[in-house]
Amino acid sequence: MKMKKRKGNVVDILPSIVLILAAILLVGTFINLYGILTVNEEVKQLSRKYMLTMETMGYLDPASRTKLEQELSALNVTDIDLSGSTLTDAGYGNTINLNISCRLPLEHLNMAGSDMLAYFFEDSSIPVSSRRMSTAKN
Q1: Are 96 and 54 within 8 A, CB to CB?
Q2: Would you say the C-alpha torsion 110, 123, 33, 100 has a positive or negative sign?
Q3: Residues 6+ apart with CB under 8 A from 121
C-alpha cells in the first residue's frame, strides 16, 4: 500500500512561526535591557572609584571632576550633572557627597497611534543616577 503525500497547510506551521518571532523579540529586548543595566552599573562603579578618591582628598578636585566627566562621556551618557557634590575641602571627619546624574540616550519603537503601519523609531533617554556619601579622611 502506497502512502499518499499529505498536502501542507500554512495553519500547520503558523504556531511555530509565531513562537520563533516571539523568541526573537524577547532576545532583542533582553539584549537592549542588558546594555542599559551595564551602563547603570558602570556609572555606579565610577561613583565608587571617585568617592574613594574624595575620601582621601576631602572633596572632588577640578582634575578629578574633569576626568570623571570624560569617563562618563565615554559611556555615551549625556546631560552630566554633578550638582550636590562636595567641590570644596570639607575637612577631616565631615560628610562628603558625590551626586552623579546623567541621561542614557536610547532609540525605541514608538507605537502610539492607531495605524499599525505608522510605527517608527524615536530617540529618547532614560535617567541614570548615583548618590554616594562618606566621611572625609584627609
Answers
A1: yes
A2: negative
A3: 107, 108, 109, 110
Closest alpha carbon to 131 in 92, 90, 98, 88? 98
Please report how many Cα atoms fall inside a 13 Å half-sphere around the Cα of residue 115, on the Cβ side: 4
Q: At what angle do helices 62-74 and 10-57 cross, to 10 degrees?
A: 170
Q: How far apart are CA 47 and CA 70, in angstroms?
A: 13
Cell of 45: 562603579
pTM of this prediction exceeds 0.85 = no
**One-letter amino acid of 14:** L
Give the tens place of pLDDT for each residue, 25-82: 899 889 888 988 999 999 999 999 999 999 999 999 999 999 999 999 999 999 999 9
- Grid cell for residue 95: 560628610
| Residue indicated by cell numbers 577640578 | 62
**Cell reading at 63:** 582634575
